[in-house]
Amino acid sequence: MKCLAAVYFALGVEAASAASGGLSPNALVPSRDGESLFVSCGSAKQVLRYDTRRRKVSGVVSMPDAPLGLAMAPDGRRL
């Protein structure tokens, strides 16, 4: 999961696989409570939910096309 390296990079954690290339994170959006970080990964056609406390991916949504960005609703209930 190459996009996972993008999450580590975004959080300032070194990941050996980040140097492998092929990453295409194009948006990062935190949840209102800060417990999750959502990452849009274009070439993987996925949106990841990263659990900031456990420091691991807690969900993956496959998209039909490359996601171009992310936005969180003001109430935090919809991504």
Structural overview:
By secondary structure, the protein is mainly beta. Helix content is 11%, strand content 32%. Strands 1-2-3-4 form a 4-stranded antiparallel sheet, covered by helices on one side. The protein is globular.
SSE diagram, text form:
Layout: H1 2-10, E1 25-30, E2 36-41, E3 46-51, E4 56-62
Antiparallel strand pairs: 1-2, 2-3, 3-4
State the helicity in percent bands. Answer: 10-25%
Biggest pleated-sheet summary: 4 strands, antiparallel
| Estimated structural class | mainly beta
Gap between N and C termini: 22 Å
- Strand percentage, roughly? 25-35%
Counted by DSSP, the helix tally is 1
Identify low-pLDDT runs. Answer: 13-21
Quick structural summary:
The protein has one helix at 2-10; strands spanning 25-30, 36-41, 46-51, 56-62. With 79 residues, the protein is mainly beta.
Task: Sum up the structure in keywords.
globular, 1 helix, 79 residues, mainly beta, 11% helix, 4 strands, 4-stranded antiparallel beta sheet
